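Pinned message: reference record for Phytocyanin domain-containing protein
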Amino acid sequence: MGGVNRGMATEAFVLMMLLIGHSVVLTSATKYVVGSSTGGWTFGAGCNWPSNGKLFKANDTLVFKYEAGHHNVVRVTKAGYRNCTAGVGAKVYSSGNDQIKLGRVNIAMATEALVLIMMIIGQSVVLTSAKHVVAFRTGGWTFGVACNWPGNGKVFKANDTLVFKYSPQHHNVVRVTKAGYLNCTAPEGARVYSSGNDNIKLVKGQNYFICTYPNHCTFGVRLNITAV
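Predicted structure (tokens):
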């Protein structure tokens, strides 16, 4: 596959090596305070915390700071994370200053990283353009989609199409730069999609989309997609 981003393949390989633990020297455990830029463990933290999605070490500690009585913290499975459900008897942290150690990574994640490498470098993979409907549960392009859409963070292909379905009275879609994605701002004159059924082709590289309605991007109505 021509024009492949080799840097991404290298990152994926490093990810796999970190996950399976070969030739990796781990330093002492570290504490990380979880939170968005405005309120700790609160609405939008899952989408806006700069360290969300990074690699940590087993025995690192996450510190969840929040107002007790308004939030809590529960460790769940991958299915629980996607469906926003907790298992019966799951431990509920509710002190407002919870410190939780990270467990070891799942080796299955290393397999996923290897598949990612194969997709990126194009070895024995036949790729065709496709359409992908952006959706969180039954709500389409709406609050929480940035964190919960299974396709968010995956590798797509240039010329694939994202289909944004939503109520045009409640949302819109704007393609922005990385800075616009991080700061939830759109440049003056940016094209605003507002049909409620927008089909937008991906370009090679990073593709960033936000909703420009007040506070919608902050609460997760945004996407960051890589196309190779």
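Pinned by admin. Summary line: The first strand starts at residue 31 and ends at 34.
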